[in-house]
Structures are given as C-alpha cells and as structure tokens.
TrEMBL record:
Residues 14-151, 184-287, 297-408 form the Alpha-D-phosphohexomutase alpha/beta/alpha domain. This is phosphoglucomutase (alpha-D-glucose-1,6-bisphosphate-dependent). InterPro entries: A-D-PHexomutase_a/b/a-I, A-D-PHexomutase_a/b/a-I/II/III, A-D-PHexomutase_a/b/a-II, A-D-PHexomutase_a/b/a-III, A-D-PHexomutase_C_sf, A-D-PHexomutase_CS, Alpha-D-phosphohexomutase_SF, PGM. GO terms for molecular function: magnesium ion binding; phosphoglucomutase activity. Its cofactor is Mg(2+). PROSITE patterns: PGM_PMM. Its EC number is 5.4.2.2.
C-alpha cells in the first residue's frame, strides 16, 4: 500500500447547502469529485495525524464505493484511526453519538437525507465536527473555499476492504475498524428513557404500533430497539431493510411520502401509534390513532412534559426552534421560565447553544426534533420520547396534545412547498420581496394588515457570529405569520417554501383543519407574491 499524491483540478460547485454537499449521483460520479471535497474537509481540519474519524452513511446508492474512497483518503491524510459502520451504515444521530463517544475530530456522513436515492437519485456528504454536530457556517465556508483552490489530494492505494464483518485492518499508518453501527446508539437510548415503562406499553393489549423505516437507515436501529430490546411484536418495524434506492420511495416522513403509514393510523381499525423516519434517521413523523401530530406541536409538548422522561427529570435549561417553526414552544418556555432561541433553518445553528448548556431541547418544523444527547436531530429518539410520555401519562397521543392545546392554545401551522421551479424566477421573486419589505408595514392585503416585515438575521449568542439573509418574515394583525424562503437542500431547480402559522387560544377553535384556519394568510401570500405566476404551479407540490 503506497501513499499517493494525486493531481486534480477544482470544481466550482462544491458549496454545501443547509446540510452538506448534496448533488445528483451523476455529479458525484465525475472523476475526483468526491475526493476533492473530502480532501477539502481534511485540509480545513488541518492536523489529521493522530486523530480519529467516524465514517458511515444511509446505505444509498454509491455508499459502499464512497466509503472505500474515503478510507483511502483518510489513510492518505494519516488519520490514526477510522471507525466505519458495518455495511457502511450509520444513521446521522448515531454518527453524532460515536464522534462524541470516541473523542473523534469529526465524522463523514454519506447521505442526501430525505432526497430519493438510486442511480438517478441524489447523493450527499456531510461533515460533522468534534462536538458531533454539523460543521458551523464558518467551517463550511472554509471547506468551500478550499474546494475552489484544491490542486491535489492524498490517498493510499489499497485493495477494496470488506466492510460487511466486524474487523480491524491496517491501511498505511491508519487503523480501520469496522464497528457495530447500532449497539452504542441503542445503549444511549436505553440510558435516556424508561425502557421498562415503554416495554409494558408496547405489550399492553389494545396498543398497536408500526415504525416505518422507509427502506432507509433506521431499519436496523428500530429492529434492535423496538423489537429486540423493548419486546415489540415482530413486524412492528416495516420497510426495515435499507435499500440503495429506498425501494423506489422518497424517504421523507410526512403525510405525502409516508402515506401508507398514515393509512394504517386512520379509519376504524387505526393503530394507536405510528412513526416514520427519513433516509439518514434524523427526522421523525409521529401519528396517533386518527391523529396527525405537527412537528411544531411535537416540540412544544415534549418541552412541556420533559420531566416525565428520566434524562430530563431535573428540567430543561432552555429551548430553541428554527425561525419558520411555529411559536408553540415559545409559550411553553415562557410558562417554564426558561429561555427560547430562534435560529436560522438547519441543525448547525443549535450546536453552540447545546454545547454551552443554554438549551436542552430543540426542533424544526421539517420533522426534526432533538436534545443535548447528541448534536443532531434524532428520529428514533423522538419516537421513544413520545412512547415514554404515553406510558407515563397513561393517555393517548391525541389526548396529550389536546390537553396541551387547552392549556396553551393551538398554533395552527402549515408549510406549502413549490418544488422544481425555475431558479432565476424564484431568486427574482425573493429579491423583489426583499426590496419592498420597508414599504409593507401598514399595508392591507385580503382583509389582513401587515404589522411588521423583515429579513431574518441571527447573531449567535455564544460566538457572536452573524448569519444574514435567512428568510423573510411577515407578521399580520390577526397574530398570523408568513415566512418565505428558498430550500438549500434541493438538487433540481429551486424549491420555494412558504410557512404559515397563527395562534388560537385555548378557549377557541382547537380542532379545525389548519388549511381552513390559515386560508386568509394563504390567500394573502398569493396576493403578495403572485405565486402561480412565478412558479407556474397552481397548487403546492407538497403540503405538510
Ligand atoms: C431542509 C429543512 C431543514 C432541515 C434540512 C436538513 O432544509 O427545511 O429544516 O434542517 O432540510 O434536514 P431546506 O434548506 O431544504 O429548507 V435533513 O433531514 O436533510 O438532514
Ligand atoms: Co435527514
């Protein structure tokens, strides 16, 4: 095995988005494309000698090959130790945990998360730093600038190694260990939740649940945790085998892409509990019997009930939510007398707050919830949290949420996505909106009045860094809010995201359809943005 210096030319399109570098598989198949980016990560880290690196992915197409190439690059950059998940598998939260557990300087997670996989789908590379969390904005910018000037990378010429059995192999100066991807994570979960109470719930007559792994990474984790350790009946975990193309599906746990699970939780024979996760295991959708739980409400209810879970029995230090997430959790924080932080979209913005002990729980409207147990959102963790609450409160999921609304009121929320639209048209629309922001205050639209409008900027209270241009917020006189931003995770054209929320207090209408309650705001958005004209779409591609 020899150390090689390989000459290369920079690519101009390796700027990471909201969550890593995400591109069509064909883009990653260009010679040197993957190597350039990974070397840019290692060069940004600086000193790799003597360090430990964690590597794994969600099992999608290219995962195996990419792991071989990353091991060879890690050896070329003289890492002391590389830990690889068996079969190349590591969920995003499990990788975050391993980085922390092994004192690694970081980890590479191969995933395009909820984007479809397969040869015609997407691939992605995320780098998480030593705290276990996504690289900060500053580090991401440094990686991008390294990718623009790279002219060589280092690798060790090695035969393909087997990653299907636990083993240790020496590659140059680097010890490569294939490890169990599930065990440490399952142990962590057992240390946080009341497994005895959850096991009793799962075996109680009249409680039936399914966990839909969507043929993505959580299958092996869910089988170990729900079926083996908690004793749920065989078959509780469905679509449990990770497949390179996710069985042709779209591993995004929402009402549209997990429609099969929604059907199982609907009707006369509905299950009492359903849950799903995404490609890389960091998202969650949780359903009750004939009851859809909005992720914004989920975060609020978890915060309000946290002390019922052993890990949070002493209370929570604070909470954070991404800006587009509804303000439901803010009401809980006020009630508890703990701080609430509003951050830009993307988990990287929670890391400093978690590291500094300023928050314990955080979440995003995009089916992401998490805590200080790792530095990523965590799908299975959220499901266990809910099961723990249902067991502790001896109430159904719907009853818990309805009690919550009765106390705090309900923050009706919906997100409308317009996918695959023309990037230039989308950019022009957003720019046009930003230009008129100063004139919007006081304007009447469709029976509503705008009381405030701004472009969201965030100053990190820990390191004082400033992140600007993080989406437009428009506040209305009925307490409603419209948020407008473009997605940073798509790979084709642009995706316009519109987020609507409005609070109704506890004595008001609590069980209405969010689309109806929010219709005045939705109509105001059409008036303000001429969405149909700009996007060419007369209805959203996706409504959550
Ligand atoms: C989306 C979500 C965001 C989430 C990100 C990564 O980003 O809106 O809340 O953090 O995906 O999630 P964007 O820029 O497309 O809106 V995942 O599960 O891809 O790691
Ligand atoms: Co994900």
């Amino acid at each position: 095995m020899t150390l090689q210096r390989v000459e290369t030319a920079a690519f101009s399109d390796q700027k990471p988005g909201t969550s890593g570098l995400r591109k069509a598989v064909s883009v990653f198949q260009q010679p040197h494309y993957l190597e350039n980016f990974v070397q840019s990560v290692f060069s940004t880290l600086g000193q790799c000698e003597g360090q430990t690196l964690i590597v794994g992915g969600d099992g999608r197409y290219l995962n195996d090959q990419a792991i071989q190439r990353i091991v060879s690059l890690a050896a070329g950059n003289r890492f002391a130790r590389v830990l690889v998940g068996r079969h190349g598998i590591l969920s995003t939260p499990a990788a975050s945990h391993l980085i922390r557990e092994y004192g690694a300087c970081g980890g590479i997670i191969l995933s395009a998360s909820h984007n479809p996989g397969g040869p015609d789908g997407d691939f992605g590379i995320k780098f998480n730093a030593a705290n276990g969390g996504p690289a900060t904005e500053q580090m991401t910018a440094a990686i991008h600038s390294a990718s623009l000037t790279i002219d060589h990378y280092w690798r060790v010429d090695m035969p393909a190694m087997s990653i299907d059995e636990l083993a240790t192999v020496q590659v140059g100066e680097t010890r490569v260990e294939v490890i169990d991807p599930v065990a440490a994570y399952a142990d962590l979960m057992a240390s946080l939740f009341n497994f005895e109470a959850i096991a009793a719930l799962l075996s109680a007559p009249g409680f039936r649940m399914r966990f839909d792994a969507m043929h993505a990474v959580t299958g092996p984790y869910a089988i170990e945790i729900f079926e083996r350790r908690l004793g749920a009946a065989g078959g509780t975990v469905i679509n449990a085998i990770p497949l390179p193309d996710f069985g042709g599906g779209h591993p995004d746990p929402n009402q549209v892409h997990a429609a099969g699970l929604v059907a199982l939780c609907s009707g006369d024979d509905a299950l009492q509990f359903g849950a799903a996760s995404d490609g890389d295991g960091d998202r969650n959708m949780v359903l009750g019997e004939n009851f859809y739980l909005n992720p914004c409400d989920s975060l609020a209810v978890l915060a309000a009930n946290a002390t019922l879970v052993p890990a949070y029995a002493d209370g929570i230090a604070g909470v954070a939510r991404s800006m587009p997430t509804s303000r439901a959790v803010d009401r809980v924080a006020d009630h508890l007398g703990v701080p609430v932080f509003e951050t830009p979209t993307g988990w990287k913005f929670f890391g400093n707050l978690l590291d500094a002990g300023r928050i314990t729980l955080c979440g995003e409207e995009s089916f992401g919830t998490g805590s200080d147990h790792v530095r990523e959102k965590d799908g299975i963790w959220a499901v266990l949290f809910w099961l723990n609450l249902i067991a502790a409160r001896e109430q159904s999921l719907a009853a818990i949420v309805r009690d919550h609304w009765a106390q705090y009121g309900r923050d009706y929320f919906t997100r409308h996505d317009y996918e695959g639209i023309d990037s230039d048209a989308a950019g022009t629309m957003i720019k046009g909106l930003i230009d008129v922001l100063p004139n919007l205050r006081g304007k009447d639209i469709n029976g509503l009045q705008i009381i405030d409008a701004d472009e969201f900027a965030y100053r990190d209270p820990v390191d004082d860094s400033l992140s600007q241009g993080q989406g437009v917020r428009i506040f209305f006189n009925d307490g409603g809010r419209l948020v407008v931003r473009l997605s940073g995770t798509g790979t084709q054209g642009a995706t316009l995201r519109l987020y609507f929320d409005r609070h109704v207090d506890g004595s008001g209408r609590l069980n209405a359809d969010p689309q109806q309650v929010l219709a005045p705001l939705i109509n105001a958005a059409e008036d303000l943005l001429s969405i149909e004209n700009t996007t060419g779409l007369d209805t959203p591609s996706l409504i959550t």
